[in-house]
């Protein structure tokens, strides 16, 4: 607390709260006027009020990178009944780690448990192809798979899957696996580079994991390193994330949520930034002594397009040893999911229309869904754009749908065709 006294005389005002104990002022200003004395008191957050976390909050507030940020509302999500196979695969990986950590704890404390899987050599995989590393014969423990890479071209639903998993596992109790999330965005100057990535993750770890020791460790790290906000990304990651986690007892670490979701790494506009993030997180580097990912309890779900820089990195042997991958392509399951998405979307538009008697019957006409599926070419974003255009307020849905069907089918992207509707 800072104070200034303009007079010290017999008429001076008495001290504030002279008999009080354990008083903490949080950003408060107190004025007292007595006789000829005017005392001004102004307090900043003291160390007992987490000055470090306050600084961290000020650095990342308004960033809009979290899965539940207002800036991303409404976020893309998987419609009920779609993407079930992929969500199940990723959920199995997420939940299996928690089960394994519980088994490890029981084994340490003498509680009878089933023997864990026997570890063996990771199967050798081709280095030049983007083939999934997860197979039925993959006998690695879940904790050994530290990164799951979800990849596919634009519009295939990567962000929707990432968002759905964030919401599913951001619940306290058995389902609380999410520790932090970060959604990159090419069009946002604060989210098209990794400047705030590790600051944001550190703040989420401190505030959402509900572990007082971890919270205190991160707060202390910021207070002891005033220049941490200007430090390199590697230093921020090590001092704000790795070292606070390593300072915890093993039992505390076992109880923590461990999932970090990073979506849209390809939306870092500089390829070198994409590579740097991957190097820091995994510890895989030929030149810098980054912290090996095996030394921390965190696991990362990373979603991106298979950009050249990212593709080159994830095809390294050392990355393959610690990772799995899932591709989003235009296979049969994807087509069926998009068809369900379109069907339910048109049903909602039809149900919301005040005078459905003016609609042709059936609507949409037979064969329309299949035609739209062909135009979508496996891209959920095409189907989503169609539904938004057809269901736009103050428009007539059948006419809007006819406009789309009247567009020529070209070799160009489907988005270019839809763009003409808004010109």
UniProtKB/TrEMBL annotation:
Keyword Repeat: yes
A family per Pfam: NPHP3_N
InterPro entries attached to this UniProt entry: NPHP3-like_N (IPR056884), P-loop_NTPase (IPR027417)
Keywords, sorted A to Z: Repeat
SUPFAM superfamilies given in the database record: P-loop containing nucleoside triphosphate hydrolases
Domain spans labelled Nephrocystin 3-like N-terminal: 141-305
Name by which UniProt lists this protein: Nephrocystin 3-like N-terminal domain-containing protein
Species assigned in the record: Tetrapyrgos nigripes
Species lineage: Eukaryota, Fungi, Dikarya, Basidiomycota, Agaricomycotina
């Amino acid at each position: 607390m800072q104070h200034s006294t303009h007079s010290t005389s017999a008429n001076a005002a008495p001290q504030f709260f002279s008999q009080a104990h354990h008083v903490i002022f949080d950003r408060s200003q107190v004025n007292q006027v007595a006789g000829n004395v005017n005392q001004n008191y102004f307090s900043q957050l003291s160390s007992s009020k987490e000055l470090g976390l306050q600084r961290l909050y000020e650095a990342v507030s308004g960033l809009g990178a979290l899965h539940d940020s207002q800036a991303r509302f409404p976020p893309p999500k998987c419609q009920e009944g779609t993407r079930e196979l992929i969500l199940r695969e990723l959920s199995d990986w997420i939940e299996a780690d928690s089960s394994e950590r519980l088994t490890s704890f029981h084994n340490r404390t003498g509680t009878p448990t089933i023997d864990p899987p026997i570890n063996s050599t990771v199967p050798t995989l081709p280095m030049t192809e983007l083939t999934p590393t997860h197979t039925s014969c993959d006998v690695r423990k879940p904790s050994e798979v530290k990164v799951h890479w979800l990849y596919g071209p634009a519009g295939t639903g990567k962000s929707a899957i990432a968002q759905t998993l964030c919401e599913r596992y951001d619940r306290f109790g058995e389902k609380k696996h999410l520790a932090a999330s970060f959604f990159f965005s090419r069009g946002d100057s604060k989210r098209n580079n990794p400047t705030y990535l590790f600051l944001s993750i550190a703040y989420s770890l401190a505030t959402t994991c509900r572990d007082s020791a971890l919270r205190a460790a991160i707060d202390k790290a910021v207070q002891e390193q005033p220049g941490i906000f200007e430090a390199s990304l590697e230093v921020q990651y090590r001092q704000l994330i790795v070292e606070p986690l390593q300072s915890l007892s093993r039992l505390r670490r076992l109880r923590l949520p461990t999932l970090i979701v990073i979506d849209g790494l390809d939306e870092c506009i500089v390829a070198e930034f994409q590579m740097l993030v991957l190097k820091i997180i995994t510890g895989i580097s030929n030149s810098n002594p980054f912290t090996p990912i095996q030394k921390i309890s965190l696991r990362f779900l990373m979603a991106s397009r298979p950009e050249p820089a990212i593709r080159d990195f994830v095809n390294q042997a050392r990355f393959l040893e610690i990772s799995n991958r899932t591709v989003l392509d235009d296979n049969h399951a994807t087509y069926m999911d998009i068809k369900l998405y379109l069907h339910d979307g048109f049903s909602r538009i039809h149900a919301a229309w005040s005078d459905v008697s003016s609609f042709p019957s059936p609507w949409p006409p037979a064969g329309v869904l299949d035609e739209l599926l062909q135009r979508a070419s496996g891209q959920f974003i095409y189907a989503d754009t169609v539904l938004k255009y057809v269901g736009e307020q103050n428009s007539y849905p059948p006419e809007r749908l006819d406009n789309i069907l009247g567009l020529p089918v070209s070799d160009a992207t489907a988005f270019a065709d839809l763009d003409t509707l808004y010109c």
